[in-house]
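Bug report (template v2)

What were you trying to do?
Predict the complex of my protein with heme C.

What happened?
Run completed; filing so the output is reviewed.

Input:
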Amino acid sequence: MKKQLGLCLIGAFLVACGGSQNTQESEAKETVATETNSMKGKQLIVASDCLSCHKEQEKLVGPAYADVAKKYDNTPENISMLAVKIIKGGKGVWGEVPMAAHPQINQQDAEEMVKYIFTLK
Ligand code: HEC
């Protein structure tokens, strides 16, 4: 299990390097500290299919990430609860359209994604 996690991390870093152009296009004007902490989650989101259904500030198929961030408090419980929803999918919170499951994403990466979403509050 440890080994697998390591491989995932290496994978995430490779993706992070490959996707660095997207970072430069980012309009986020947050402090450097927040940027650094949320960078991994953002890269994971960019590398996955999330953006085909979610935008940061506007509703698309799913809710805007900024709206998700406003709805929930930034607590460890909510981070892990939302991470589970990303992995298993969910519906009924924002409407009748369900969110696809992402069984290929591990809990730790999903939590990084949620942490990034919470920076959009
Ligand atoms: C096929 C479209 C689709 C894709 C792809 C998708 N989502 Fe969603 N997402 C939705 C919809 C629709 C909802 C609202 C579900 C509901 O009402 O409970 C949602 C809800 C969410 C929520 C809020 C869940 C809640 O219970 O409040 C989060 C967080 C989220 N998505 C993150 C992600 C992330 C991260 C990814 C990429 C790994 C992703 N989504 C990919 C459609 C999508």
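What did the reviewer find?
The radius of gyration is 14 Å. The chain has a mean pLDDT of 82.
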